[in-house]
Amino acid sequence: MGCKCIYIATTWLLLLTNVLVAIIVVSEANKKIPALIVFGDSTVDSGNNNQIKTVLRSNFSPYGRDFEGGHPTGRFSNGRVPSDFIAEAFGIKSTIPAYLDPAYSIKDFATGVCFASAGTGYDNATAAVLNVMPMWKELENYKEYQAKLRAYVGVEKANEIIGESLYLMSLGTNDFLENYYIFPTRRSHFTVSQYQDFLLGIAENFIKELYALGGRKISITGLVPMGCLPLERAINIFGHHACKEEYNNVAMSFNKKLDSLISKLNRKLPLLKVVSANAYYILNDIITRPSAYGYEIVENACCSTGTIEMSYLCSDKNPLTCPDSNKYVFWDAFHPTEKTNRIISNYLIPKLLAAFR
């Protein structure tokens, strides 16, 4: 009888243990990222440049014509940008507001906020080209946001949001295309490889500062095939307007070094998880095989003639702006259409969901 009781008790203990394990597994599976916090350049800027003194803005038509309501928002796209799609995939919200936009408050920012500034880069000199926010200023705004968040939800809840949020970093292309290859200053001090290392050193310090401020989940995007942007193809006259493969090779080399940096940070900083959100290969595949994705035009952009137009050079008064952006890989000479942003995001999202949810 005693043995039978022990057997029954043991059986129930095992069942209870399995139930508890199942509850924990389900709980972990359903744990949500409370907010998406965004740093970077025009690939993810949702309107911060509207509020600073710079010529690099997109708060006018035809930008935003396919956004909800058909209004320009400051996003350098006809619609949404990747950070919007990523936030939606995590069940947070469908768009991420710009921190400097006076239409929003800490109530909105508590579940997602964008500090990005179009035209910026890792290098402070890059931000100075068009008088936009450097990365150190984005970080200062984030510190201010933390103080507001603690005042809004309390210290304990704010620290939970800060620690569990997903931090998205998307920048680097401007450092080469608006700085290194345009002005001689950096080229006189750095080879391409040395400049890559210089930028990655800044990226490392930035991530370490985020870590010190409580960030633990970080997604960082490398460089895209920048030699195939319409702007670069347009000015590649002697190359018959083909992609500048030299630039693409620089991008791939940078991304490889970035992966090594990510591995090092993940090893050295306890509880930190950094994931590479490398969009190079998906965008390159779209550019190489546009018809496979339903595109008709890849060399030029939808806006105006699609050669060098960006920001104020992209105007709805220009009769050459295309009527159907879904046929185009690029919206303006530098930025993808919303359709392309969605495809890129759908490629990256499963990896991010697997890593952070």
From TrEMBL:
This is Putative triacylglycerol lipase. Belongs to the 'GDSL' lipolytic enzyme family. One of its GO terms (molecular function) is hydrolase activity, acting on ester bonds. InterPro entries: GDSL, GDSL_lipolytic_enzyme, SGNH_hydro_sf, SGNH_plant_lipase-like. Signal peptide: none annotated.
